[in-house]
Amino acid sequence: MPLSVLRTLQVVFLLGAAIDAVAAGVADIDTAAIAQPKLTDWPSYGLDYREQRFSTLDEINVDSVATLGLAWSFETDYIGGMEATPVVVDGVMYVTGTWSVVYALDAGTGALLWKYDPQVPKAWGKMACCDVVNRGVAVYQGKVFVGSLDARLIALDAATGNKLWEVQTADTGKFPYTITGAPRAAKGKVFIGNGGAEFGVRGFVSAYDVDTGALVWRFYTVPGNPADGFEDDTMAMAAKTWTGEWWKYGGGGTVWDSIVYDQELDQLYIGVGNGSPWDRKVRSPRGGDNLFLSSIVALNPDTGQYLWHYQETPAETWDYTAAQQIMLADMQIDGRMQKVIWHAPKNGHFFIIDRTVGKLLSAQPYTKVTWTTGYDLTTGRPRQTAEAQWVDRDETTTVYPSIAGGHNWQPMSFNPNTGLVYFTSNGFPFQFREKPYAHQWGEFNLGTEFASENAVGDFQLMQTLIRKVVRVELIAWNPQQQRSAWRKELPGAVNGGTLTTAGNLVFIGDHNRDFLALRADSGAVLWRFAAQDVPYSGPSTYQIDGEQYVAVSVGGGGVAGLTLSLDQRLLPARSRVMAFKLNGTAQLPALPQASGFGDPPALTAHDRTVADRGEQLFGTYCFRCHSLAGSSKGRVPDLRRLPRTFYDRFNAIVIDGAMASMGMPGFKAVLTSDDGDALKAYLLIEAEKDQVLRAQPLWWVELKQSVYDVVAGIAVRLL
Which one of 29, 84, 102, 562 is most buried, counting C-beta atoms within 10 A? Predict the structure, then answer.
């Protein structure tokens, strides 16, 4: 037999063996396997149902981590937008990237086994409040489940990536729903929520049969129109906490991230999001707590029946979602062990909640908080401050934490050996100012001013001020004592999720595009790797043939990934998955140099006259996708560096939607041709500034940075 034929047969045999192994591994993943996963695997978003993200693997530890190196990296098809935790079963990794694409990789080599692209219409990206991201998959009984950006739930064959079934989970013909969160699976069902509160949707969570995709139950998080009748007694009860005609505004309360199954108590917990609009006077003019906004709700996983709730922010009006990671734990309280939830949501407090009945046990601030002076443990309610109530005021009100939250979606982890929970904290304030509410389908409708900070013309200075003046930290929180054990200052605005291990390590990605390992007991940095883009996701760890790996998704996503990556001298890397092992020797390719800066037309006197209005329009309609001054980060075109033909056809693209099929929707419903001219004028001025910046030699840029560091350091000490 010819050698070429033998090699072909060998490849076919090995491929068949790999597919068989994939099928066998995920086929064994059921409720019991997720509840007590194998040491070698990472079978669910948070590792197991407790979502503590602690691994007992310890080959990589404080003594050996110095030799940690890159084992392999896998490039996706896009730039940025990677937020998924890699799921690993029997040597196969399942991970999602931008536009909800699913990749199955050999976890030992990074080789692609299969890819599934749900073909989300690119124009639907406009409906995502915070980038076209996806946080990962659920695997269960031979299937891989993913939620797509256009609100579909899709079941794939784990061995081949072939689609088994697909359901449309929300009516996207009428409402701008999205899905960016990872599904969860248990008891023969897969659970999924949705996003879209900023655009005026009504939140809910659904359970589907894992084999058929049939809807098993649906639980709404806010009540609908009373004239249509309430779905159940729970919604009738919730409606008593709303006033006016809230249903006309959607209500919000989307379950866009955290869904956790409690196998011990057989309860399902969901984290509910913010109100729609943010201004509670609009959605509920005569007051009320507005259940179940900003709440943790416990449901019967078989029927979706309401069991209990705890509302962390009654009458939510600051975008303080409770959708952040829910962690299950057992802890000693008043001399006895209690089953609790640990939660560090956006409102700035670390909560301990009795998960059997939903009673608040403790709530302590982990960052600067001005909207409340604390919680009354008898009533479970916060004591809200008058100065944080921004509605009905004809002035700007500064509130801590910001709409980014004291802590956001980036996963936290708990190490039982240190007794500490690790999560990032953002020390930003936000300035609210009430404005008239006018609903536009597919546009932000918040009831507050929401514009970019384009007035900061020097990107270097802005980055320095963020890093020096605003306190951004990795916190090691002691839940037993309800205070931090240590805090580590981090660079930039937003940093990654955490993983902790029995090797006394914490892994995290930071805004400087580094992936770090720190001592879990002290916070000392032991190792760092230049990842070329921000590892925002939660890392995972696994073992193959006795060798431990640590994996992380890399590619800045969300609003922060689009707006705060300001290095314009190098083009960004494609989004990647990176895996590390001891003595790994793989290398990343060098970043390409930026080129092709375009040739914008010359500015006119009229351009300079209307540019201020263009800046305002940019902050309202363009900033969340196109970044500061249109600078982008390679995800979408840098609007300061377009070829002349784009400027010549500016209104056809921006107003009429000539490039809608490529993800750039038209804004004819809300903008006029004069508005388009103003936007173009503003961007031409920014293009002029960019040309000046790029002409500066590198030594001058570095000197300015040194001066900024000194000045900002002095300012911090004086403040």
Answer: 84
